[in-house]
Amino acid sequence: MNRRAKAGLIVGALTAALIGTGTSLALSQHSASTAVGLVTSGELSLRPGDFAWHEATPGLPAQDAQSGTSVESLAGFAATAGDTIVAGQDIDLDADGDNLTAELMVSWPDTAAVPDAAVATYTVTDRTTGAPVAGDSTTPVGAPLTVAGIGERTHRWRIEITVRFAGQPVYSTDVTGAPIPDAVSMGPMNIRLQQVREGQ
């Protein structure tokens, strides 16, 4: 069976730095460590959960798809043209108050380092129901998603990021060939959650 030669665009670590800021009332801050970054919040207390990633390239046999449950394993993965990578972070959000509004955004910290061939989107869904938490089910990376009406309970979300690389997949029996000269480091990706309005 042919295997892909691992050369080309290098996918760096998906580092989630979830940042929640208080309002003008200087709401209390909480923080927690997670495998993918530091979580802080104001009235929205965040508890990080599981992280996982996998290849979802169309036509790729399941036995050849790579996956992992750590940022380190993702950092060591190299993607070629046509590849699709999906990474997700589970978050439990405890709201202290009713009708809170927050703005969530997934972004590249340095857009100049993002290859033109990379198209990235993200979804935020309720892990209990599978439904989107707000608006369209898919948001481009770099665009904010406003989540309104957050009630006083625990909200179990999953943030899933999909990165697609343009072009046709490259398959080869030679897995020891020389790296492609224009390999690019994707660098980290940030996830920010910011409270934008108080509730009752």
Structural notes for this entry:
It comes from Nocardia seriolae. Residues 1-26 form the signal peptide. This is Alternate-type signal peptide domain-containing protein. The protein is mostly beta strands and 200 residues long. The protein has one domain (9-197). Helices cover 2% and strands 44% of the residues. It contains one helix and 14 strands; from the N terminus they run E-E-E-E-E-E-H-E-E-E-E-E-E-E-E. The strands form four sheets. Strands 6-5-8-13-10-11 form a six-stranded antiparallel sheet. A three-stranded mixed sheet has the order 2-4-3, with no helix packed on it. A hairpin with a 2-residue loop joins strand 3 (30-34) and strand 4. The longest helix is centred in the middle third of the chain and has 5 residues, at 71-75. The chain starts with 8 loop residues before the first strand and ends with a strand. Residues 1-42 and 173-186 have low confidence and may be disordered.
Computed over alpha carbons, the radius of gyration is: 18 Å
What is the beta-strand fraction? 35-45%
Largest β sheet strand count, sense and barrel closure: 6 strands, antiparallel
| Count of DSSP-assigned helices | 1
Tally the beta strands.
14
- Order of strands, main sheet, comes to 6-5-8-13-10-11
- What integer is the average pLDDT? 69
Task: Report how far the terminal alpha carbons are from each other.
Answer: 61 Å
Structural class, judged by helices and strands? mainly beta
> What are the secondary-structure elements, in order, as H or E?
EEEEEEHEEEEEEEE
Helix content: under 10%
Shape: elongated
